[in-house]
TrEMBL record:
InterPro entries: GNK2 (IPR002902), GNK2_sf (IPR038408). It comes from Helianthus annuus (Common sunflower). Residues 29-139 form the Gnk2-homologous domain. This is Gnk2-like domain-containing protein. It holds the Pfam family Stress-antifung. PROSITE patterns: GNK2. Keywords: Repeat, Signal.
Length: 163
């Protein structure tokens, strides 16, 4: 009878150990990446055009009734001072979250690439991904730039690649 009690006691202890997660809960992983390149703006007009293009992206997503997750705009002016800007949000993300992500990435890119001619920035949250990209003096729509993206074999998330 005593052997049965010991075995029962060990089974209960083992089930308690297996049932209790002793690991400390971690906050969700929030990753962001950015790449700036091209040197400083050659004129204050370029900075104004960059800010205008980024602001237009926010207006486009806010005022557009047909949400599709992709928006592109280009500022006016001389060709060398024009700024082309694009925004992408995964289609499985609702418009409100996408708009919030865009606002955060635009603030982030203005802070981390304050005077650079070109930049791209991503934000990754669980189930939410978005990207903002701008370039001065050239169009970026349908142009593949290796410096702006890459794929990691481990977790299939986008990472920057500098060439």
């Amino acid at each position: 009878m005593e052997m049965k009690s010991i075995i029962l006691f060990l089974i209960i202890i083992q089930s308690i150990i297996n049932g209790v997660n002793l690991a400390k809960a971690q906050p969700p992983i929030i990753r962001d990446w950015h790449v700036c390149r091209g040197g400083d703006f050659k004129s204050n007009t370029i900075k104004k055009n960059r800010d205008s293009a980024l602001d237009k992206l926010m207006v486009l997503i806010k005022n557009n009734s047909s949400y599709n997750g992709f928006y592109h705009t280009q500022s006016a002016g001389k060709p060398e001072e024009q700024v082309s800007a694009s925004f992408f949000c995964a289609l499985n993300v609702v418009k409100g979250l996408c708009e919030c992500c865009l606002r955060n990435v635009v603030q982030y890119i203005r802070k981390n690439c304050p005077k650079q001619q070109e930049a791209v920035a991503w934000d990754f949250y669980p189930y939410l991904q978005c990207m903002v990209r701008y370039s001065t003096g050239r169009k970026i729509l349908s142009v593949l730039d290796d410096w702006a993206w890459g794929r990691s074999g481990e977790d299939l998330s986008v990472k920057t690649v500098l060439i």
